[in-house]
Predict the 3D structure of the following.
Amino acid sequence: MFDTVIHPEADLKFTPAVAREVAPLYARVKNVVSELDWSVHAPYILEINRLKREMGAVILAHNYMTPEIFHCVSDFAGDSLQLAQQAAKTEADLIVQAGVHFMAETSKILSPQKTVLIPDMRAGCSLASSITGADVRLLREKYPNTPIVTYVNTSADVKAESDICCTSSNALKIVESLPQDQVLMIPDKYLARNIAKQTKKKILTWEGACEVHEKFTPADIKKMRKAWPDAVVLGHPECPPEVVAECDFAGSTKAMADYVTDKRPSRVVLITECSMSDNLQAANPDVKFVRPCNLCPHMQRITLPAILKSLQTRTTEVHVDAAVADRARAAVERMLAVKI
Ligand code: 13P
Ligand code: SF4
């Protein structure tokens, strides 16, 4: 257990000494973060990294975090599946989740003995808020013999009522791992429809959608292809199937990042949250990114000042009822046990 660590004296000025100390970090992001923006970010980055070490904390960051978080303060960054795996194996007693609430809850579910902080409790998700545990109980009554596969973008209550979880990385493998011919995939209707196109199983779903990915249209992609005929178009499976059909490749945020890193296309359009393009651009300066910019308002609540305050005040701690956590953990662990 740590005592509350507050450093009111922390000097958040951009001095030459600060600039020198964080110069190696600026080298990582200088092609996507202006010098002016860096002068604001740098003192926070220095103080967050100092405090993090002092407190023995780790920062787990989702691929949609902005570059100054993703590249400069995170200890581990990745997609939802990787973050869940990392939360389970980190030895740190204090996790700061730079991501949305369901990700912090998943970390807490997998590591109930650890303190999990989220820098802004309002960082929700339109998928997570589309369904409740009570809804899942009603689905269970209606379809008693149909297994319920629940996307990790859900609350602990919803996971607790489920047979197994999935992420966009492993959804097809999870569905295929089940013996039944009919499966309920909740709550993302688009992910479910995209998976239905790849399996012989009958997929039932729920009316949830990601408010960021549902905004993309096939016409958007056609327009971008016309403007940049050499571009490779990568999309997330939370997009509607008609949008995915227009993409060259669809996969989780990790799968899209791996595509760019491995194949190094000369120009890329990412049909997903646009901070991810900035993060990949920072790491792959030779690849040109077209950035159709749909931002997730929930992910954007996580900022450097919010992370610093979270560490300084050890807030806001994520709690999950122990009985709910046990049942939710079983669903997440069943997912982690499926070989992908
Ligand atoms: P990934 O699991 O692909 O990182 O997606 C999480 C998410 O919230 C996408 O909108
Ligand atoms: Fe939820 Fe969509 Fe934001 Fe991901 S991008 S956290 S699915 S609202």
Notes: The first strand starts at residue 57 and ends at 62. The radius of gyration is 20 Å.
